[in-house]
Write a structure and sequence with these properties.
Number of domains: 2
Bound molecules: adenosine-5'-triphosphate, magnesium ion
Number of strands: 14
Largest sheet: 6 strands, mixed
Structural class: alpha/beta
CATH superfamily of the largest domain: P-loop containing nucleotide triphosphate hydrolases
Mean pLDDT: 91
Low-confidence stretches: none
Distance between the termini: 42 Å
Order of helices and strands: EEEHEEHEHHHEHEHEEHHEHEEHE
Strand content: 25-35%
Number of helices: 11
Radius of gyration: 24 Å
CATH architecture of the largest domain: 3-Layer(aba) Sandwich
């Protein structure tokens, strides 16, 4: 478990993290999303002790992250693998040797039978068995990130910290890398903290997400809850516009969850109530393997009460838009 309690961090006069409190559970994929400069990377670097913080507390598996005891911090850092947008591979080393690097750093012989077995099994896990002798320049971006992921796993960390791990990749390769991260989370039970500014990343793999803006947590929760029914701040981050809505009548936004998303509530309502209304705006989205959506309808003012009562009866979440 990773716990942040009232963490504050500044670079000289610039306050970058302002009273951040978060809890990340064991085994979950936790997203941290926000615009450029929000403080995401700084937050991640504070978690793994690459940056110090001025006040508050960061606990990783019950241990305080602090540079006061260097040896203790080093051991704690061993439990946290890290991957970056820029892959950070050594060009002169092949895939196998890049993955072996952290072992060398920790004084573990990468030629030992145990190390060999470990490295080869990781190469297989990330799907690079046919590339183990290739140099980075012979690899595509997605393949380089696979090497970086295997390298981050070679010391058997309990936590994987990912900083914009897919920002440099095209959408299809992004999906592949995210699936790989999800597989690693499921098969190895590794907790993942995923920093990103891409909504797609959060939607595809995160179980919970925190929105960070100007060093503060604006909102936290399940992505489907935050995205489908965003509050003002989250909406402005998503730059979501429900477009121009009619001035006459009443505009009602409906929210569909997994169970109700494919039920024909709308057509059924038109039939059952025998009223006319128009659909102004709609979206359906996938979150992990679930579908969530929302829809804005415009109904005549005199029908509002009837429609709302009907939606309540059908257990559809709704909200009248002003
Ligand atoms: N070493 C540093 N010294 C001084 N200021 C820094 C340092 N690192 C980051 N900052 C500042 O802290 C703020 C947050 O930076 P950070 O890199 O954490 O943002 P971010 O959310 O990761 O942004 P991006 O999405 O662009 O990566 C920025 O204003 C940045 O200029
Ligand atoms: Mg960053």
């Amino acid at each position: 478990m990773i716990t942040l309690k009232n963490v504050r961090k500044n670079f000289e006069n610039l306050e970058v993290l302002k009273d951040i409190s978060l809890t990340i559970q064991d085994g979950e994929i936790y997203g941290i999303i926000g615009q450029s400069g929000a403080g995401k990377s700084t937050l991640l670097r504070c978690i793994n002790g690459l940056e110090t913080y001025q006040s508050g507390e960061i606990l990783v598996n019950g241990q305080l992250v602090s540079n006061k005891q260097e040896e203790k911090l080093r051991l704690l850092q061993k439990e946290m693998g890290m991957i970056f947008q820029s892959f950070n591979l050594l060009n002169r080393l092949n895939v196998y040797d890049n993955i072996a690097l952290p072992l060398k750093f920790w004084g573990i012989n990468p030629k030992s039978e145990e190390a060999k077995k470990k490295i080869l099994s990781l190469i297989e896990l990330v799907g690079l068995s046919d590339k183990k002798n290739a140099k980075p320049r012979e690899l595509s971006g997605g393949q380089k990130q696979r090497v970086a992921i295997a390298r981050a796993l070679v010391l058997d960390p309990k936590i994987l910290l990912c900083d914009e791990a897919t920002s440099a990749l095209d959408p299809e390769i992004t999906r592949e890398i995210l699936s790989l991260l999800q597989k690693i989370n499921e098969e190895l039970g590794i907790t993942m903290v995923v920093v990103t500014h891409q909504m797609e990343v959060v939607k595809q793999i995160c179980e919970r997400v925190a929105f960070i803006k100007d060093g503060k947590v604006l909102a936290e929760g399940k992505p489907e809850e935050l995205f489908v029914k965003p509050d003002k701040d989250v909406k402005s981050f998503l730059q979501e516009e429900s477009g121009l809505l009619p001035q006459e009548g009443v505009n009602i936004q409906l929210f569909f969850s997994d169970e109700s998303a494919d039920e024909p509530v709308i057509t059924k309502m038109a039939r059952d109530l025998d009223i006319n209304f128009s659909i102004c705006w709609a979206k359906l989205e996938d979150f992990r393997s679930h579908v969530y959506g929302s829809l804005v309808i415009n109904v005549p003012t005199e029908e509002q009460e009837k429609v709302c009562a009907y939606l309540n009866k059908e257990h559809v979440l709704w909200e009248v838009l002003s």
